[in-house]
Structure formats: C-alpha cells, structure tokens
Amino acid sequence: MLRKITVIKYSAFMSNTLLLNTMNRRQQELALQPKDDIVDRTKMEDTLKRRFFYDQAFAIYGGVSGLYDFGPVGCALKNNILQVWRQHFIQEEQILEIDCTMLTPEPVLKTSGHVDKFADYMVKDVKNGECFRADHLLKAHLQKLMSDKKCTSEKKSEMEGVITQMDNYTQQELADLFVQYNVKSPSTGNDLTPPISFNLMFQTSIGPGGNMQGYLRPETAQGIFLNFKRLLEFNQGKLPFAAAQIGNSFRNEISPRSGLIRVREFTMAEIEHFVDPNEKVHSKFSSVADLEIMLYSSKAQTSGQSAQIMKLGDAVEQVNQNLLCTFSFLPLVLPSLTASHKVVNVVQFEPNKGAIGKAYKKDAKFAMEYLAICDECYITGQEKLLNENGEFTIETEGKTFKLTKDMVNVKRFQKTLHVEEVVPNVIEPSFGIGRIMYSIFEHTFRIREGDEQRTYFSFPATVAPYKCSVLPLSQNQEFMPFVRELSEALTRNGVSHKVDDSSGSIGRRYARTDEIGVAFGITIDFDTVNKTPHTATLRDRDSMRQIRAEVSELPEIVRDLANGAITWTEVESKYPIFEGQETSKKETVEE
C-alpha cells in the first residue's frame, strides 16, 4: 500500500504540559513553592557569582545584558543535566538525535511564520530611547501600584485581573492599558511611545555578496522538520517516532533582566514526537499513569489559580480534551511504500440531501459539511440517539439543525486502501537548559542551621558538578600516595572529582566543596596511613555524617551513590559511623 504522509510543522507549545521544567515568571515560580520555602536570592546569587557558576559575558568591556559565560562548576552542572536528559529521553525511548546548523536561511523562517510573527511588544522612552518590554513593564508598574497602602481592594482586584491576562492582550489593548494606568519610564519618569512589535530574531547575511538573508535560529525545531524525510526513511517509514536536538538558540530579547531565566543566547533540548492521529498510545504510559506531579495549567495561570497535584493519567485526559495548538504551515508530502494494501472499516453519515435541503434551504450545506467530517465515535453516539429518539441535534456555523431518521442514516462498510494520507500530530516538549539550571539552584540552595555564613547547594548526586572531593587532612606528604591512588581509581570508575590539598583546615575545605555542591567527600587521615587495611572516611554533604571504609572500596561506593544504585542510608547501615581518628602524629583541629 502506498502511504502518503503529510507533515505540518507544529510551531507552538501545548497549552497544558505534562512536565513543568521551569516557570516563565518569578511569581509563578513562587506559587509552586511551599509558602515557608522562600529562597534568599541575594545570598544565592552572590554564591553563584563568587564561585563562578556563571557570570556576565564580556564583563571587562562592561558586559552585555542577556549573555552569560559558564564557569567550571556551571559547565559541569550543565553537562550533567544534558547527560541525564539524554539518558532519560534519547536512550530510554530510542529517540533519533540530530545536530543541525544554527544559521538558517530566511525562506525557512518565513515559511514557518517566524519572520512575520516571532515578536514581542516594546515601548521606548520618548527622550533617551531606552527600550522596555511592554508586558513586563506594565506588570511591574501594576505591582508597584498594588503595593501602595492607599490602593483599594477593588483596584487591587482589577489590576490582578489585568496581570493574569497579560499574555493575551493585543497591541491596541496594551496601548490602552498604558494610558489607563499612566505608565512612565521607570528610569527617568519620561513618557513612553505606544507599544510596537519587535521581531526577536538576530538577522545576518550569508556569503560575501550579502544577497542571501539569514537568521540565527530562534529554536531548534526547524532542523528536525526539514530533515523529516530522512528521519522517516531511517525509521523504515514507520510512525510513531521521535527526533531530538540539543543546541544553542538565539532571541534578541528587548530587556533581559532576569539572569538565566531570560537571555539572548541559550541552550535548548527539544523533541518532536510524530504520532499517527488515530493511534495516540504510548506502550509505557500505564507504568506512570498513577504518578502524581504538580501541574500549572494554562487555565489556572490565566485565572490566577494555584498549581495543583494531579495524576498523569487524569492530566492526559484533560489535555486530550483541551489541547490547543497552532500550526505554521510547513507541509512536506512524503510517500513511503509498504508491503500490501490495507482494509479498513468505515462508519459515516449518509445524508438525504433532498430532505435536509427542503427543511433548511440555503443553510442545508452547513449541516451536510458538518456530517461529512464526523468521526466514528461521534457518529456512533448520534446513531444511538437517532434510534432511541428518532432524531438528534447538531450545531455548526452558529446554527442549530434537528435531523430525523428520514434526513440521515448511518452507513457501515469495508474499504480497501491503496493510498492512505496521514497527517501526523506532533508533540513538542521543549526544555530551556538555563532555566532548568536556575530552578535547580533555587530548589537546592541551603544555609547551614546555626551558621548563616555557610551556604551550600544540595544538588542531586546524579547532576552534581563533582560527585566527590578527595581531601588529605593536611599537607603531610604521607597522605599523597593515597590521594593519587583514590584519584586514579575514581577516574577509572567514571566519577568526576576534585582534589583539594590546599593548606586550609579540613573544616574550611569541607565548606568550600559544599558551597559548589560536591555530593561526597573522602578524607585521608592518620588512621589511613597507620592502620591496615588502609581506610578513609566518606562524608555526605547534606547530613555531614561520615562512615569509614577501606580505601579500595570507596571509589565504587561513590560511583554507586552517584548513579543512584544505592542510598546514603544503605551505606550507613553497612559501614561503621566515623566518630574520630584513633591515631595521630600531631594534634589536628577541625574548624
């Protein structure tokens, strides 16, 4: 059978999503947190900058807003997140990964709608030309007005309603709101221009002649769709299949002022899952259908409601009913030859055109067009009403039609298909890695109880920048052979680690490694040197508890802890808790 597959690029995101990776707005992030779990962002961002997780790019030249460089710790964390992402999606689901160019010719993005519509609304200071993103500025202005003690409850309620609908306003509606609430430049107090549309893509020219216009890609999806034919062939012409791409994208944000949350260059991990619209079934879904996760639906966001915990099975039912999608018309008609023809069962309405035309005159065409597109499930339901009541009602084009048995009946027959045209549905999960990183920073930032100056990141061991530190108790040269032995063994076991043999006390060095989120620490002391078999301590970052085990065992223990094969509780149950050294060559005090 010849199977003709027509693909239409799915360029917008699902309105309800099964996985929340990050929130676009700070208030939404806070809404998802427990009320007593407020992050000290000043301390957190000071730690991030001081330990060079990331910093503003080109800082020695004054820096550029929305561009950031990742330091050694941030780079390791980012790579570990991507590794976990690849394991969870690409390897687990056998997704086809590709890597496409970031430079994109204009016709591609013209066809996808980005050239005409990929824009935000912007306002300018009429005197100095400073630019602001209109919706963000309006929201900040309304929040300032709401914080005024003189603001009445009615006014607060009105402004809260405006904020919840912020993403839905047209250009003119935004302009009216700026006038209504007398919004001025927050920097100078000057008047602002009316909102104008600003395209977020970086434009360039390709080649020395300057005749071919291009853009830096605003998302990674285009490359997947353009290579659909090759990917389908690679998958032996079968649906469903998924393709993924990890890479940088670029958006010329109007006023990026939220750290990694809103930047001009960022890493995305994106999946395009192509499915037959009549076979939307995942073989593994039953294993997670009862899993409860926190979801923040589009309806809840626009109505000001809170996020809620929901089972995945229940969420999918709601998404299937309420999925909103827009398309950007990039059709690719791709034939694929299969082994044989296909026999299908067909159920359809058979209208009596004369009876319907007599009853509804010129409006009859609307009823017949509606009947022609009904699916089997709907037809079966209406057939039941027709048999029980002798009639059923349909609504289309703003008109109501009552159809009786003499106007319509249901026809069932088998049909042999030699050519089947399929328009796949596309599910597009998109992950902004920088936003995921910032969410992890917020969720894992801690301050030691009783010591406000000791901060640390409680990263899960699977994504921690370094899984383990190796710490000789002092700079005594007798410790060095064990440091080298452990470092080499950790490397052989694939465990990222950091050796800190500096002159600081062991307590200070613990604090330094905690601050960059190192999950575990191996300490070599005089018992390591003086006793056989040689042992060392292993410290858990979060609890600060330690066990003692043989040096030869420790690399594999750390490897299994980092991979999630065992837990710290299991380690404590197997090995003796460390209480203190039993031998020493000199007095050693831990701060």
Automatic annotation (TrEMBL):
Key words of the record: Aminoacyl-tRNA synthetase, ATP-binding, Ligase, Nucleotide-binding
Enzyme superclass (EC): ligase
MF terms in GO: ATP binding; glycine-tRNA ligase activity
Gene3D superfamilies: 3.30.40.230, Anticodon-binding domain, Bira Bifunctional Protein, Domain 2
Keyword match Nucleotide-binding: yes
Cellular component, GO, one term: mitochondrion
Domain Aminoacyl-transfer RNA synthetases class-II family profile: 40-472
Name of a matching Pfam family: tRNA-synt_2b
GO process annotations (BP): mitochondrial glycyl-tRNA aminoacylation
SUPFAM superfamilies per the UniProt record, alphabetical: Class II aaRS ABD-related (SSF52954), Class II aaRS and biotin synthetases (SSF55681)
Coiled-coil residue spans: none
Top-level taxon in the UniProt lineage: Eukaryota
EC number in record: 6.1.1.14
PANTHER family membership: GLYCINE--TRNA LIGASE (PTHR10745:SF0), GLYCYL-TRNA SYNTHETASE/DNA POLYMERASE SUBUNIT GAMMA-2 (PTHR10745)
Assembly notes: Homodimer.
Protein name stated in the entry: glycine--tRNA ligase
Source organism of this protein record: Sinocyclocheilus grahami
